[in-house]
Write a structure and sequence with these properties.
With 230 residues, the chain is of the alpha+beta class. 46% of the residues lie in helices and 13% in strands.
């Protein structure tokens, strides 16, 4: 994994000083939401320009051997001023820190991390069923529905709902009074599955609505066409 902070500077000879230029971002991933959508949401939420390089399944086999852009032979990767960051979680945290969306102190970051890891555990279990090649489509549909209603899933959702409730009785976001990485990860992962997932958790449903209709994200989400999964 490559993780760094990079800035470009141009010398302003007339002023005798350097002016800081915004980084150039390029996101490399497939044309579905998957592991890269949190990155896209972070960029759109902050209004930061980036190149969304959507790579087709047909082109990927010939590109993955590019050790510069894809050091681990996998995606997503994020190029920052030509340097490459691997691993989606590392990318998410780097951008959240850069954009001021990773909490104001260690405790807030602790809450955010608990939300993200709990939801990551859930989606890994769900996707393992969805990708199970030993099941036919109907069996997969039933098995995925079972994951949404099983006791361990309800336990995870109850836990993050309690975290939400600690902050202004659940009327705002997981921490503070504005969206952070935790809220974006929550919105993305719960949006990858059937909306029935949150039926027993009205406080989480309300949070989902607040993120979906936030002024910063509404326009992007209204016109988003790439699917959650292939």
């Amino acid at each position: 994994m490559y993780l760094f902070i990079s800035h470009s500077f141009l010398k302003q000879k007339s002023l005798g000083e350097y002016s800081k230029m915004p980084p150039k971002y390029v996101l490399n991933y497939f044309s579905f939401q998957g592991k890269a959508e949190v990155v896209r949401l972070l960029f759109h939420y902050k209004g930061v320009e980036f190149t969304d390089n959507k790579i087709s399944f047909q082109d990927w086999p010939s590109l993955k051997s590019d050790n510069y852009k894809f050091p681990l032979g996998q995606m997503p990767t994020l190029e920052v001023d030509g340097h490459v960051i691997c691993q989606s979680i590392a990318i998410n945290i780097y951008l959240a820190e850069t954009f001021g969306l990773y909490g104001e102190n260690a405790f807030e970051r602790l809450v955010i991390n608990q939300v993200c890891e709990t939801l990551d555990d859930f989606i890994h279990e769900y996707l393992a069923v969805r990708k199970n090649k030993t099941l036919d489509n109907e069996q997969k549909r039933k098995a995925c529905a079972e994951v949404l209603t099983k006791k361990s899933t309800k336990l995870k959702l109850s836990f993050i709902e309690r975290l939400l409730k600690r902050n202004n009785d659940g009327k705002n976001f997981f921490v503070g009074d504005s969206i952070t990485l935790g809220d974006i990860v929550f919105f993305h992962i719960t949006g990858m599955v059937d909306k029935s997932l949150l039926y027993d958790f009205p406080m989480l449903e309300d949070l989902n609505y607040r993120v979906r209709h936030s002024a910063e994200l509404k326009s992007y989400l209204d016109f988003r066409t790439h699917p959650p999964l292939p």
